[in-house]
Amino acid sequence: MIRRFFLALLCGWAWHGAAASPMAFIDTQIAAHPDATGTYVLDSGEEALRARAWLADHARHSVEVQYFIWSSDNIGILATEALLRAAERDVKVRVIVDDLLIDAPDKSLLALDKHPNVEIRIYNPKHRVGTPFYKRALNVVTDFRGVNQRMHDKTFIVDGRVAITGGRNMADEYFDYDRDYTFRDRDALVVGEAAKAMRANFEAFWSSKLAVPVESRFDGLGLTKKNVKVGDAEVQQVYRELHAYARKPENFAPEVRAAIDATPAAFERLAREMAWGRVEFIHDTPGKNGRRWSLGGGGKSTAALAQLVADARESIVIQSPYLVMSDNAKALFKAAVERGVRVSILTNSLASTDNLQAFSGYRKQRKSLLKMGLDIREYKPDPANRALLMSRVNPPAVPPVFALHAKSMVVDGQIAYIGTFNFDPRSENLNTEVGVIVHHAGLAQQLQTLMEADMRPENSWSAADAPDQYVPLTKRGQVLLWQLLPLKPLL
User: Fold this and answer.
1) Which residue, of 119, 263, 390, 470, has the greatest Cβ tally within 10 A?
2) Annotation: CATH topology of 284-490
3) Which long-range contacts (CB under 8 A, 24 or more apart) does 293-298 make?
């Protein structure tokens, strides 16, 4: 289904919709499905990139984005430039980025924020943006839970009517553009009611005291925040450099740009294939929960997903890059197995993981999870379907190492979840998370087919077959050292 849609894009199928423009066509679809949400699975990096780029280029009033990671690599720069172009045609752009892993020069952040149509806020700035080194160390000592409480949300909302959420951050490796290491990831594009709910959640974070205007993090005396300023000439220079970067063919391939421009050609087909029905947008509140000193507490997203597991009667299929079960999660899945529910989980192998600390937590409990009756498979770094998933124009001659980053679940073949939640204590108790629960059997079965394809023997190993054997002893030794540390609540 997904492949056919993007084949239509490349073939330039004619758009015969009655609406005057593609965004107006979206409006007609929303009007035709009152109080419902249309959902479409973005399963490859290429289509996820095109969808975001096209929506940014055709926003009419507003773009709101919320991300955990925003890098200054190729994808990060092009995404920034696309938002700047939207602002230059009088679209209001608001951005919330978590502080921990933002990778952008201070002056660039300030320059973008100085555009009259751009506002940037930093979530929980205790590590990087505007924070002197000594203050970072002090924050760890005086507010350990606070520095570990991150905004893991990933949302992209256009005009309050169309939105994308899922596993992808703004960096090369999430869109198949890293030549050495890339993620097998997944997003959901939603139209209608769920997009409204997503925007309401954005507003809650925007007005939270944890989301701090970027300009307030600078121009200090170097005691509690950095003394950084940017003049008008520097602001314009940043804008010129961004536009110049995006115009270079080696940075933004003409084939990709042409495919983005062709996107409206398949909108009627997209409308036919979109799953319309009830969709719940689940999310946490800023700060996750009321705990201030301990590392527990749960959250609204945790409770919603736990309820799905508790209600399962036949099967649960999960993809999660990190699998570290809390005692509550163990009890939940143990009860599911005991009532006859088949539980299948795909997570990363030691050969594919990007997080040795998280893998150490999984490795400590792997035997007990298998003994519980869970069918666990571990993703290979060179899955047989890698070429199919690497859909982008001009892929590298030597394929990159693949790792799982998709966070998805299907319950009883009827209900689908796509979002940001990893099955680990950090997502359960510390990080804010989001996602969509789609009550549509057709989409759930489509998603389950995609997930089960990744679980085939040519793409993953059975966890019962000791897949650690495929990595060097040195890497196994590193994980063993991490296993000795009491890290579980932070994983």
Assistant:
1) 263
2) Endonuclease; Chain A (3.30.870)
3) 293/145, 294/145, 295/145, 295/148, 295/425, 295/429, 295/430, 295/489, 295/490, 296/429, 296/489, 297/429, 298/428, 298/429
